[in-house]
Amino acid sequence: MRGRLVPVLILVVGPAACGHAEKSDWERKHEAGLPPGEETVALPAYPEERQLIEFFVAATSEFRFFVDAASIGVASDGVVRYTLVARSAAGAENVSYEGMRCATGEVRIYALGRGGAWSGRPGEWRAIQPRSVQRWHNALYREYFCPQREPIASRQEGIDSLRRGGASVSRSLSEDVPRGGSGSGW
């Protein structure tokens, strides 16, 4: 009896163990409508002080925020990726490698940095909240990496945007003020 069970188990377990899984009828029918898979993401070199560019978040912030210029990238999937460094006045530092989907206004943390090394697993995509406590994501989204919900065209464009302080004042104001009825009598 024992000799008869072994071949049956190999046949049952064999395809699954090899990583071969058949698609269901539903998957085959709907796969064209599913969002494309994200590119494989390689972590950048750990940020160096000389590559950090500070950006403004809010006058009331207890932290200073920086992006590592060497880590900025725009992938073919439309995601802007960058290393974020947040420093408190006391010198505490938070480092994360993140991605931003401009078309959907979402952010994802790929890894956290500590002691010069990356650790952790990628988190889920989550919406960037305009009035969130985490205002730095909103600032990066609106002013630096995704003006008018479009990703920057290149790493250099991201660096230039950070160095000049983001979107121009006139563009920022035109995005925030609805046309034809501000209540001011215009």
Q: Would you mind describing this structure in some detail?
A:
It is a single chain. With 186 residues, the protein is an alpha+beta fold. The chain has a domain at 49-176. The protein is 27% helix and 24% strand. The protein has 5 helices and 8 strands; from the N terminus they run ααββββββββααα. It has helices spanning 2-17, 25-30, 135-145, 155-164, 169-176, and strands at residues 52-55, 63-68, 73-74, 79-88, 93-101, 106-114, 117-119, 126-127. Strands 1, 2, 3, 4, 5, 6, 7 and 8 form an 8-stranded antiparallel beta sheet that branches. The model is unreliable at 5-21, 29-35 and 168-186 (pLDDT under 50).
Explain briefly what this protein structure is.
By secondary structure, the chain is of the alpha+beta class.
